[in-house]
Amino acid sequence: MTQEEERHPDDVQQHLREVQELLSRHKLVENLVHRQDMPRHDLVENLVHKQHLAELQARLDELHSADIAYILEALPLDERLFVWDLVKAERDGEILLEVSDAVRESLIEMMDPHELKAAAESLDADELADLAPDLPPEVIQDVFQSLDSEGREQLRAAMSYPEDSVGALMDFDMVTVREDVTLEVVLRYLRRFDELPDHTDKLFVVDREEHLQGILSLESLLINDPDLEVSEVMRREIIISFQPDDDADEAAQAFERYDLISAPVVDGEKRVIGRLTVADVVDFIREESEHEILAHAGLREEEDIFASVWDSVKNRWAWLAVNLVTAFIASRVIGAFEGSIEKLVALAALMPIVAGIGGNSGNQTITMIVRAIAMGQVAQDARNRLLKKELGVALINGLVWGSLLGVLAWWLYDSASLGLVMTAAMTLNLLLAATAGVLIPMIRIRLGADPAIGSSVMITALTDSGGFFIFLGLATLFLL
């Protein structure tokens, strides 16, 4: 890698600062020139404008597409569109693939149909399939008509698979060879390429009908005698391959488990139809992680941080409405014990502790369960075993930390009975949190729903209402 090609992870922050500085300087100078009363004012203003545009455009031309995507996501809408206009048209397609879904929508909205068509035509079939759902139907139709028969078939195939399947992630850019040729022939064949497909660490050995016969690693190709045939050095056994209908999560786990860089994708008759690369898998894992984080907080989709107020409201209102209902229920639980709280004011000071610790414990449990489900480590028949284990953890934590809080309550309010109630309430609420933390995601899985969506909201609501009811109920029974 040359000096110019080297990149450091922190460089993107520096690039962002530079672009922001150029934008700021552009606005400042234009405002000053605009206010000045001088001969040939329009000419001067136009020259200054072109000078700053040229400087900013030259800076953008030097950046990687992923860095430009990052910069666009970090800019307010007006500056984002200004910068987007300066990006060279031939780079539009690859940048649209790099930006988040929310930002991509804002960029596509300002592009003309012919610009969208040009951007789409610059992409491979698998990349176009990723972008297609965000493009107007008439643009997709025009692009489809412009493809050759092989491209049409690949695009049709890529768009036919579910979003979370291997088929939706695979690409069609790969190198296949026959087993009855020598390594020297393979090397000559590879030298005809301008460049190999990204992440090519192995060649797929196929017969005349494209059935997978084995794997020829680049290492074996380079270190063996060129006069040997492919069949003599290729690997036939323990070939990790996938079918297009396989679950993408399982494929990602296989890539992690076996340290794969690429793997063939085969149909039901073992014909090679594409390949899966580590880049595809990393992108999928990142998107799934982002989705899980957002879903955990009750957000329906990724949100552009500079989106309009109304768009943000639409994205957030659903689970806030649920939270409002659960908060009202919790307030009614407290209201039912107003008499007890009036007689023993200490209850008002202590009950948030019970609810807060319960919520935190429940979130720990549900996070572990959701992660295990995502990793494919939890089946429905494991529910009772997991529940037993989490109840054991909750019981120990409840007795240890509940006893500590009980002693503190006894010391603060000079009441041993209040301390015992505090210990009991803490233990019971942690047991409730553990039960909910296991059952909520398991039930959502059985119902065919995403176990992560709204999990934090639900567990917090349950431990708040349950904690208040348990603590105030015990206090009413044994202290008043």
Topology:
Layout lengths: L10 H25 L5 H21 L3 H9 L3 H10 L5 H7 L2 H9 L3 H9 L3 H7 L5 H10 L2 H12 L5 H4 L6 E2 L5 H9 L10 E5 L5 E6 H6 L6 H4 L14 H11 L3 E5 L5 E6 H19 L12 H27 L2 H6 L2 H29 L8 H31 L2 H31 L8 H24 L2
Helix pairs in contact: 1-2, 3-5, 7-9, 8-10, 15-16, 17-22, 19-20, 19-21, 19-22, 20-21, 21-22
Write down how many β-strands occur, each being a DSSP E stretch of 2 or more residues. 5
Radius of gyration: 30 Å
Q: Sheet bearing the most strands, described?
A: 3 strands, mixed
CATH architecture assignment of the largest domain? Orthogonal Bundle
Approximate strand percentage: 5-15%
CATH topology name of the largest domain, in short, is: Tetracycline Repressor, domain 2
Helix content: 55-70%
DSSP helical segment count: 22
Mean pLDDT: 84
Following the backbone from N to C, one meets helices and strands in this order, namely: HHHHHHHHHHHEHEEHHHEEHHHHHHH
Task: Assign an overall shape.
Answer: globular
Distance from first to last alpha carbon: 77 Å
**Mind telling me the CATH class of the largest domain?**
Mainly Alpha
Taken together, the total number of domains comes to 3
Walk me through this protein's architecture:
- There is one protein chain.
- This protein has 480 residues and is mainly alpha-helical.
- It folds into three domains: 11-165, MgtE N-terminal fold, CATH 1.25.60; 176-296, Roll (CBS-domain), CATH 3.10.580; 309-478, SLC41 divalent cation transporters, integral membrane domain (Tetracycline Repressor, domain 2, Orthogonal Bundle).
- 67% of the residues lie in helices and 5% in strands.
- It is built from 22 helices and five strands.
- It has helices spanning 11-35, 41-61, 65-73, 77-86, 92-98, 101-109, 113-121, 125-131, 137-146, 149-160, 166-169, 183-191, 218-223, 230-233, 248-258, 278-296, 309-335, 338-343, 346-374, 383-413, 416-446, 455-478; strands at 176-177, 202-206, 212-217, 262-266, 272-277.
- A three-stranded mixed beta sheet has the order 1-2-3. The chain has a two-stranded antiparallel sheet with strand order 4-5.
- The longest helix is centred in the last third of the chain and has 31 residues, at 383-413.
- It is globular, with a radius of gyration of 30 Å.
- It is found in: Cell membrane; Membrane.
- It comes from Pseudothauera nasutitermitis.
